[in-house]
Amino acid sequence: MKKVLLIASSIALLSAMSATVSADGAALYQAKTCWSCHGKDAKTPILPIYPKLAGQNAGYALNQMKDIKSGARANGQAAAMQGVMGLVNDAEMKEIADWLSSLK
């Protein structure tokens, strides 16, 4: 009986965790205000110095976000991004990166 309760509890916990992690990358891109600089379509940034993110390699985009958040990347516009990246957790970064890579 203990084993069944443990398994059921584990399944319930994993289900709750996956619901929070599986947020849509496009929705996160909007909610985390990425669009305000990089454009609603991730193709038309508000300033020419901001990168176009649509179609970017997911692994590269994810690493850049992590490096900006940690401070490992401190060049260019990274300082402006650090405050925003503090609002985004690793799972959300991955969702956003995966969505960006799916854009053409």
Helix and strand layout, with pairings?
Elements: H1 2-21, H2 25-31, H3 35-38, H4 58-70, H5 78-85, H6 90-102
Can you tag this structure with a few keywords?
single chain; 104 residues; mainly alpha; Cytochrome Bc1 Complex, Chain D, domain 2
Q: What would your notes on this structure say?
A:
The protein contains six helices and no strands. With 104 residues, it is mostly helical. The protein has one domain (24-102): Cytochrome c-like domain (Cytochrome Bc1 Complex, Chain D, domain 2), CATH 1.10.760.10. The longest helix has 20 residues, at 2-21. It is globular, with a radius of gyration of 17 Å.
Short description:
The protein is mainly α and 104 residues long.
CATH architecture: Orthogonal Bundle
In quaternary terms, these chains amount to: single chain
Low-confidence parts lasting 5 or more residues at pLDDT below 50? 12-22
N/C terminus separation: 52 Å
Largest sheet: none
Q: How much of the polypeptide forms β-strand, as a percent range?
A: under 5%
Radius of gyration: 17 Å
**Top-tier CATH class:** Mainly Alpha
Query: How many runs of DSSP E, i.e. beta strands?
Result: 0
